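Renewal narrative, Specific Aim 1. Our central claim is that a sequence can be written position by position from structural information alone. The example that follows is taken directly from our test logs and has not been curated for this report. It begins with the structure tokens describing the chain, in the order in which they were read.
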């Protein structure tokens, strides 16, 4: 039958499936590997394992049991994350979208049990340091927890028991 054709036209080599079914590559070996000149990896399809894609013999994309690994810059016109991208070890970055109205960016250092996060919502926006909220926006302004350091002059409003005090530029506040 002429359903499968393997030929060379003088310039290019072809494998053509011109039948009505699928073209299947099947192996009982450890992988199907595409190479250039038997020395430069193009793609590997590892039996019961990863798929690896290469650019100029450098691995750029790999599937794993937990998802995918991209080496280098990944560019997308848009993106949507439907679950955590939390690193399980080492240092890393978590991008989390728990719902359509908020987003969270959290950095991790698993060796030192530290993480910082930025939660972005319509209202409020919260900034955390070592899992402790330090800054929050609200309808009346901002709330800062801890020591606030500012350079140059600033105006200070203190609201306590219904009173308000406003001062001019301040260098030292005790």
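The sequence written for that structure reads:
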């Amino acid at each position: 039958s002429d359903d499968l054709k393997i030929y060379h036209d003088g310039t290019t080599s072809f494998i053509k499936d011109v039948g009505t079914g699928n073209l299947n590559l099947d192996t009982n070996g450890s992988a199907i590997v595409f190479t250039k000149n038997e020395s430069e990896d193009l793609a590997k399809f590892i039996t019961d394992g990863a798929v690896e894609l290469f650019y100029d013999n450098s691995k750029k994309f790999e599937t794993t049991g937990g998802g995918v690994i991209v080496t280098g810059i990944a560019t997308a016109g848009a993106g949507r994350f439907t679950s955590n991208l939390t690193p399980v070890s080492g240092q890393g970055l978590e991008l989390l979208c728990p719902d359509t109205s908020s987003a969270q960016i959290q950095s991790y250092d698993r060796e030192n049990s530290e993480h910082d996060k930025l939660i972005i919502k319509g209202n409020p926006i919260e900034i955390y340091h070592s899992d402790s909220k330090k800054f929050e926006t609200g309808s009346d302004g901002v709330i800062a927890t801890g020591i606030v350091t500012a350079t140059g002059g600033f105006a200070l409003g203190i609201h306590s028991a219904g009173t308000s005090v406003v001062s001019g530029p301040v260098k030292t506040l005790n």
